[in-house]
Design goal:
InterPro entries: Tscrpt_reg_PadR_N (IPR005149), WH-like_DNA-bd_sf (IPR036388), WH_DNA-bd_sf (IPR036390). This is PadR family transcriptional regulator. It comes from Natronococcus jeotgali DSM 18795. Pfam families: PadR. With 91 residues, the chain is mostly helical. The protein has a single domain, classed as Arc Repressor Mutant, subunit A, CATH 1.10.10.10. It has four helices and two strands. A two-stranded antiparallel sheet has the order 1-2. The protein is globular.
């Protein structure tokens, strides 16, 4: 997880909180959180990078729409990250 950007970690959290979201659903959620609008040109290369790192999987919902889901590796890494954050942040 330490080699990921903050944006990529945010994407993992969004994907973890949804059931196989499409790229557009991820984009809508991340744009609610980030001040500057995220473009497709920023989103999809980062999603592809997470696929390459085997943290998420990409599949087809239909011929035009892909979904994204955490892999077991992605879930483990996100859980370890959250445990680390919880040691330092008591909200």
């Amino acid at each position: 997880m330490d080699e990921l950007t903050g944006f990529q970690r945010d994407l993992l959290y969004v994907i973890a909180g949804k059931d196989r979201p499409s790229g557009q659903e991820i984009l809508d959620d991340i744009n609610e959180y980030i001040d500057q609008p995220v473009t497709h040109g920023r989103l999809y290369p980062n999603l592809d990078s997470l696929v390459e790192k085997e943290l998420i999987e990409k599949g087809e919902l239909d011929r035009r729409t892909n979904y994204y889901a955490l892999t077991p590796k992605g879930r483990r890494e996100l859980q370890q990250r959250q445990e680390w954050v919880n040691r330092y942040v008591d909200v």
